[in-house]
């Protein structure tokens, strides 16, 4: 793994008794009605020592020691102490270019390129942790909710939203889901009602213009029909949708047809994001059968973008390096990779477009890296 | 590409004359062009394997055919798209036309308004009606609206416009209002130009062609209408109002043989776009029709040449938009984006825009107003601002009900249904009933030929497609 | 002057189909529509060419439309009804 441009972890010791969520230094908001997390605060007298305080108390109930500086964190950030592994990890960070909370690792799809392969163990406590994190963070930045499949446990998902509502939280959410749960109209109306005025963008993947390819790539029967029904229901309830497409060997040629499918049937979606595959997890395992080099995607991307432009469908390219794609596509390419898994090679330092370019995934190293060519 | 058998969803089709193309359109508004004459029979008779593989995939992606398992889903997607289409067309009025005066300084040959001489009395809308007008507009409109001053020649009652806008700034301050003045420009003064600039008003001016053409179509008793128009255009330039001005050209019979010259003329004016339109012989004497009128076929022969020339100009490097073509392109590719009221299903009769006449009477469309001038048929009136700011739609509900396109004879099986719009007043005026015999209707013929041409060019000409795409991109 | 009537079998073409096709026939053809027990009888203005040809094209396409309608009529009805219901419930 290459080294990311922003590290979101740090090594710590003496933390075995202190695993859990903390607010760093101080709460961002003055709202004390929420269930408050304990505070982690620097000992001004001893470098690399942090005291653990209960809310409203100035007496330390314990302390931990860091082996590295925590410069990449800011006061008010939510952090997680993993005492068992001796690590402190950023959960919600002001310096991050994006913040996403994991609410479950369970999933009813099994995408062949999944960067975070599903697990079956019961992890329902993650919903509560996510709610606590959002409430204590107290900033109104767009926050990602991801999994696994966040809506798989419908009750836990609804409860998560209701918990936020009960403390008058209005944090806007970007929820990544396969949408299948929303094929049930009642679940759709319930969730829409619970969301109320809260802004929510649903990021939902479609990998084909019909069942065969899509169901093959997500390895689940009936997935396409359920996902598209879910999108239709959400659109009908006035929800904002981002359709995500990952081009791989099996569906690259169909990319223009997928855009045609979206503009013909679902053209009220807010965005379409075409996302270059991240070579991590199952994608790394199945790399040889899935991978298409970025420059080989150009003609399909150009055709897809042309259709999108004609029908005024807003389209974005994620995870593409500017040196790998056609110049016409540059205006659609976004700096989309989360900073904690983002890097630039040495070759990139000489590149005139480095600041506009999204760079690479840290997992795109060694044989998984497509060699960049600097613009001079 | 699926290996499963595919089944037809309901769709409409039309063989485009003089081509091998057949267009199929779905209730979701998607279209697919079949390239061989036998394709449509193979498609309908379920011999799908005889069509090219890519065509079946395209038909599948656009939900015109489906596998068994996806059939119900695709039908529901059509329903959702159709619901959105209907919902959009039922939106509150967004266009309000006001006629400050019937007086005019021109005698345009195709004028459908019974205009009055410049010194006539009793042909002006009094400023004391402004409050009622604003109340009506405020309560009927959506958040965004356009107010268009027409005539006669609206600048002859500039006082009204000035007072109206000043009061509207208060009464309509919660709304997003844009103003347009449709004018011959010949009465433009420095004062008016400054006002237009300060209030950020748009101008829609008519220029039909070079001096001969323009003066033949749009003569004035008082001056050389072409020379004065060009003088006023210079004034607009001096005041930096060129970007506020767009141009309309109306075509009469004598121009039909001059498509290329006309296109080059408009291009020579260094304007961004031209909206060229045919005239409909509504209320003309038969001698007039003979002199200036034409059939839809005759017009389209002209227009095809005109558009080809415009496309050539664009290919050579200058962006110059044909607004009539763009309206149709928007109907196809950007449903919900266009406010041109004649083309909505249900008809833009009441729902697209209202017009307040110089005498205070309120109508549901410009053609209603003209028809009333001709027939004085009371059902066409939906309000009177000299009396109140109320509207009464009862008479119009029936006309409206009759204009849902998917139910109308002649329209219900037309492949262009998702894009076109019934025009009941046109049919009422030219054939005596709101539904009309479409095969005989200029409006229907014109729209059909327009869409035939646009789809044929889209499919057959790389240049046309390239230029259309740049126009569609905002 | 009218042409001698074109005979179309009643058991092959419904009256509705004939009338729909005549609706779009060029006005110059000035068609006359009559019938006997077995046939529909249609005559045209003999001074205009290819009226019969035009009519056959229209008939053929309308037959195709009838066939498509047989396959999809219920779905078409459901789509329109569902759309109108949705609009009603949203407003």
With strands numbered from the N-terminus, the spatial order across the biggest sheet of chain A is: 8-9-10-11-12-13-14-15
Helix content of chain A: 25-40%
Report strand % of chain A: 15-25%
Mean model confidence by pLDDT of chain C:
90
Order of helices and strands of chain A: EEEEEEEEHEHEHEHHEHEHHHEEEE
Structural category of chain A: alpha/beta
Structural class of chain C: alpha+beta
Number of individual domains of chain A: 2
Largest sheet of chain C: 3 strands, antiparallel
Helix content of chain C: 40-55%
CATH topology of the largest domain in chain A: TIM Barrel
CATH class of the largest domain in chain A: Alpha Beta
Question: What's the Cα radius of gyration of chain A?
Answer: 22 Å
Mean pLDDT of chain A: 94
Q: Point out poorly predicted stretches of chain A.
A: none
Tell me the distance between the termini of chain C: 58 Å
Query: What's the order of the H and E elements of chain C?
Result: EHEEH
Level-2 CATH architecture of the largest domain in chain A: Alpha-Beta Barrel
Largest interface: B-C, 31 and 27 residues
CATH homologous superfamily annotation of the largest domain in chain A: Aldolase class I
Give a structural overview.
The complex is a heterotrimer of chains A (376), B (474) and C (91). Chain A is globular. The longest helix of chain A is centred in the last third of the chain and has 17 residues, at 294-310. Chain A contains nine helices and 17 strands. Chain A has two domains: 9-85, no CATH class; 99-368, TIM Barrel. The two termini of chain A are 27 Å apart. The model of chain A has no long low-confidence stretch (mean pLDDT 94). In chain A, 25% of the residues lie in helices and 20% in strands. With 376 residues, chain A is an alpha/beta fold. Chain B has 18 helices and 15 strands. In chain B, the strands form three sheets. In chain B, strands 12-11-10-9-8-7-6-13-14-15 form a ten-stranded mixed sheet, with helices on both faces. By secondary structure, chain C is α+β, with helices and mostly antiparallel strands. Chain C has one domain. Chain C has helices at residues 15-23, 51-90; strands at residues 6-9, 32-35, 39-43. In chain C, α1 crosses α2 (51-90). The longest helix of chain C is centred in the last third of the chain and has 40 residues, at 51-90. The model of chain C has no long low-confidence stretch (mean pLDDT 90). Classes of the chains: A alpha/beta (376), B alpha/beta (474), C alpha+beta (91). The interface between B and C is medium-sized, with 31 and 27 residues.
């Amino acid at each position: 793994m290459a080294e990311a441009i922003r590290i979101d972890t740090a090594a710590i010791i003496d933390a075995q008794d202190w695993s859990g969520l903390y607010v760093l230094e101080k709460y961002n908001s003055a709202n004390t009605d929420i269930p408050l997390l304990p505070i982690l605060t620097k000992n001004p007298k001893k470098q690399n020592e942090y005291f653990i305080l209960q809310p409203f108390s100035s007496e330390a109930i314990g302390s931990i020691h860091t082996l590295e500086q925590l410069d990449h964190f800011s006061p008010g950030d939510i952090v997680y102490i993993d005492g068992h592994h001796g690590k402190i990890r950023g959960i919600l960070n002001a310096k991050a270019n994006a913040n996403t909370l994991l609410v479950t690792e369970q999933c009813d799809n099994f995408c062949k390129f999944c960067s975070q392969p599903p697990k079956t163990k019961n992890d329902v406590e993650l919903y509560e942790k996510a709610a606590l994190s959002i409430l204590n963070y107290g900033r109104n930045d767009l926050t990602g909710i991801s999994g696994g499949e966040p809506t798989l446990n419908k009750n836990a998902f609804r409860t998560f939203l209701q918990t936020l509502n009960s403390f008058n939280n209005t944090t806007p959410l970007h929820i990544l889901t396969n949408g299948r749960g929303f094929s049930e109209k009642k679940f759709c109306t319930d969730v829409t009602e619970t969301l109320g005025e809260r802004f929510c963008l649903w990021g939902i993947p479609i990998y084909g213009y019909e069942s065969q390819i899509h169901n093959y790539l997500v390895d689940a029967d009936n997935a396409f029909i359920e996902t598209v029904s879910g999108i239709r229901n959400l659109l009908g309830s006035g929800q904002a949708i981002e359709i995500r497409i990952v081009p791989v060997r099996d569906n690259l040629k169909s990319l223009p047809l997928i855009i045609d499918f979206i503009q013909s049937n679902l053209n009220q979606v807010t965005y379409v994001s075409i996302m270059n595959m991240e070579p991590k997890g199952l994608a790394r395992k199945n790399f040889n059968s899935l991978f298409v080099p970025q420059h080989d995607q150009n003609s399909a991307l150009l055709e897809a973008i042309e259709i999108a432009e004609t029908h005024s469908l807003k389209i974005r390219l994620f995870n593409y390096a500017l040196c790998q794609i056609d110049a016409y596509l540059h205006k659609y390419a976004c700096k989309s990779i989360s900073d904690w898994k983002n890097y630039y090679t040495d070759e990139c330092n000489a590149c005139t477009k480095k600041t506009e370019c999204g760079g690479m995934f840290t997992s795109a190293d060694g044989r998984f890296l497509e060699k960049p060519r600097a613009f001079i | 590409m699926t290996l499963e058998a595919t089944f037809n969803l309901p769709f409409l089709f039309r063989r485009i004359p003089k081509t091998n193309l057949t267009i199929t359109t779905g209730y979701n508004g998607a279209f697919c062009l079949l390239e061989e004459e036998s394709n449509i029979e193979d498609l309908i008779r379920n011999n799908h394997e005889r069509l090219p593989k890519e065509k079946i995939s395209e038909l599948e992606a656009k939900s015109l055919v489906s596998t068994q398992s996806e059939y119900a889903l695709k039908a529901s997607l059509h329903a959702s798209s159709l619901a959105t289409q209907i919902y959009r067309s039922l939106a509150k009025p967004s266009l309000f036309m006001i006629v400050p005066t019937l007086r005019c300084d021109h005698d345009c040959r195709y004028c459908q308004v019974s205009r009055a001489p410049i010194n006539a009395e009793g042909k002006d809308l009094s400023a004391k009606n402004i409050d009622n007008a604003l109340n009506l507009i405020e309560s009927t409109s959506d958040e965004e609206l356009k107010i268009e001053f027409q005539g006669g020649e609206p600048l002859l009652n500039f006082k009204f416009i000035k007072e109206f806008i000043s009061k509207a700034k208060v009464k309509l301050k919660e709304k997003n209002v844009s103003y347009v003045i449709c004018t011959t420009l010949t009465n433009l003064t420095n004062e008016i130009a400054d006002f237009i600039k300060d209030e950020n008003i748009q101008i829609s001016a008519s220029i039909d062609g070079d001096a001969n053409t323009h003066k033949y179509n749009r003569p004035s008793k008082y001056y050389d209408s072409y020379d004065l128009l060009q003088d006023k255009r210079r004034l607009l330039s001096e005041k930096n109002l060129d970007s506020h001005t767009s141009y309309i050209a109306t075509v009469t019979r004598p121009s039909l043989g001059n498509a290329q010259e006309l296109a080059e003329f408009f291009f020579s004016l260094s304007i961004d776009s031209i909206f060229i339109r045919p005239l409909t012989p509504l209320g003309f004497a038969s001698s007039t029709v003979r002199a200036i009128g034409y059939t839809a076929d005759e017009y389209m022969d002209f227009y095809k040449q005109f558009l080809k020339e415009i496309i050539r100009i664009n290919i050579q490097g200058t962006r110059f938009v044909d607004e009539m073509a763009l309206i149709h392109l928007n109907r196809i590719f950007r449903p919900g984006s266009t406010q041109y009221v004649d083309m909505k299903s249900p008809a833009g009769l009441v729902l697209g825009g209202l017009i307040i006449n110089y005498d205070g009477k309120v109508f549901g469309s410009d053609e209603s107003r003209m028809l009333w001038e001709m027939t004085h048929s009371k059902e066409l009136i939906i309000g009177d601002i000299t009396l109140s700011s109320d509207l009464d739609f009862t008479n119009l509900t029936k006309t409206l009900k009759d204009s849902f396109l998917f139910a109308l004879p002649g329209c219900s099986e037309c492949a262009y249904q998702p894009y076109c719009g019934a025009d009941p007043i046109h049919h009422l005026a030219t054939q005596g009933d709101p539904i009309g015999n479409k095969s005989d209707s200029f409006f229907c013929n014109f729209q059909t030929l327009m869409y035939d041409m646009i789809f044929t060019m889209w499919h057959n000409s790389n240049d046309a497609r390239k230029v259309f795409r740049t126009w569609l991109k905002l | 002057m009218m042409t001698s009537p074109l005979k179309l079998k009643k058991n092959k073409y419904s009256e509705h189909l004939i009338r729909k096709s005549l609706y779009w026939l060029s006005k110059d053809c000035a068609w006359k529509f009559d019938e006997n027990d077995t046939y529909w009888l249609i005559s045209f203005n003999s001074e205009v060419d290819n009226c019969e040809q035009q009519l056959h094209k229209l008939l053929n396409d309308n037959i195709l439309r009838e066939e498509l309608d047989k396959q999809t009529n219920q779905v078409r009805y459901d789509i329109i009804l569902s759309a109108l219901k949705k609009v009603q419930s949203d407003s």
